[in-house]
């Protein structure tokens, strides 16, 4: 059974828009070459509209929902409109949408867009773990974060560890605005894993060879035999 990760590639084809197709490619490559990548199914909704998400969630519930696009300081993530532009999503509707998805198995929401940390904190009451950015973020840093966090999640790391490793990468790259991880009361990010124990491989045990199953007979001391009598 696959773990499902959905990428909402919600940026329109406009100048200076985030390159969400490259971000999706980075995530795909990271998962494919990770240790448990074969257990992850990556879905994508390109040029995503609001109704694309609701239609998808009507049939499938992902364990990870990754939003790739733009955000605004006061209105949250933006979706593509039918005329090729973009507009913010209604936040109350988004909350109801992810709350319903959480009841069916959504574990992690990644809002990989500018100014989404406040919304991430709000939605952590509904979703076990939510990640957002405090301020504006360069496209190269957002893509780098996505690449590292998904690679480590698919390698079997917890949400907390994968997020921490990705933040260290951003520190090395000189990124001054870092993403933040939010969880609700009583939820422990160190205990959230994309790859569960049922999907992890069990080390193979080789059967013992016959000579080691003979109770160590070759190690026994010879029995004492008295010397023959002398005449």
What does this structure look like?
By secondary structure, the protein is an alpha/beta fold. The chain is built from six helices and nine strands. The chain has helices spanning 20-32, 50-59, 91-103, 117-123, 139-154, 159-172, and strands spanning 3-9, 40-46, 64-68, 71-72, 76-80, 86-88, 108-112, 129-133, 179-183. The strands form two sheets. A six-stranded mixed β-sheet has the order 2-1-3-7-8-9, with helices on both faces. A three-stranded antiparallel β-sheet has the order 4-5-6, with no helix packed on it. Helix 1 (20-32) links the parallel strand 1 (3-9) and strand 2. Helix 1 runs parallel beside helix 5 and helix 5 (139-154) runs antiparallel to helix 6. The longest helix is centred in the middle third of the chain and has 16 residues, at 139-154. Residues 16-167 form the CHAT domain. This is CHAT domain-containing protein. Residues 205-231 are annotated as: Disordered.
What's the quick description here?
By secondary structure, the protein is an alpha/beta fold.
Task: Outline the secondary-structure elements.
Layout: E1 3-9, H1 20-32, E2 40-46, H2 50-59, E3 64-68, E4 71-72, E5 76-80, E6 86-88, H3 91-103, E7 108-112, H4 117-123, E8 129-133, H5 139-154, H6 159-172, E9 179-183
Parallel strand pairs: 1-2, 1-3, 3-7, 7-8
Antiparallel strand pairs: 4-5, 5-6, 8-9
Helix pairs in contact: 1-5, 5-6
Q: Determine the number of helices (DSSP H or I, runs of at least 4 residues).
A: 6
Radius of gyration: 26 Å
Portion in beta strands: 15-25%
Extended strand count: 9
Order of helices and strands: EHEHEEEEHEHEHHE
Query: What global shape is seen?
Result: elongated
* Low-pLDDT residue spans: none
Helical percentage: 25-40%
The overall pLDDT average reads 88
Largest sheet, if any?
6 strands, mixed
Structural class: alpha/beta
Strand order of the largest sheet: 2-1-3-7-8-9
Question: Termini, distance in Å?
Answer: 83 Å
């Amino acid at each position: 059974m696959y773990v499902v990760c959905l990428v909402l590639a919600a940026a329109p084809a406009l100048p200076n828009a985030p390159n969400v197709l490259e971000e999706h490619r980075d995530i795909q490559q990271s998962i494919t070459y990770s240790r448990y990548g074969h257990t992850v199914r990556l879905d994508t909704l390109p040029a995503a509209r609001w109704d694309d998400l609701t239609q998808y969630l009507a049939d499938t519930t992902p364990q990870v929902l990754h939003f790739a696009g733009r955000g605004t300081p006061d209105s949250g993530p933006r979706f593509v409109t039918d005329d090729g532009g973009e507009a913010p999503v209604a936040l109350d509707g988004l909350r109801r949408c992810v709350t319903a998805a959480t009841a069916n198995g959504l574990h992690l929401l990644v809002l990989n867009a500018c100014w989404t940390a406040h919304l991430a904190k709000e939605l952590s009451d509904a979703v076990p773990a939510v990640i957002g950015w405090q301020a504006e973020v360069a496209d190269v840093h957002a893509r780098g974060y996505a690449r590292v966090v998904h690679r480590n999640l698919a390698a079997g790391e917890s949400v907390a560890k994968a997020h921490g490793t990705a933040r260290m990468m951003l520190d090395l790259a000189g990124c001054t605005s870092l993403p933040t991880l939010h969880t609700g009361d009583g939820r422990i990010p160190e205990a959230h894993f994309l790859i569960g124990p049922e999907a992890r491989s069990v080390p193979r045990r080789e059967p013992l060879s016959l000579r080691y199953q003979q109770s160590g007979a070759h190690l026994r001391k010879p029995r004492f035999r008295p010397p023959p009598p002398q005449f």
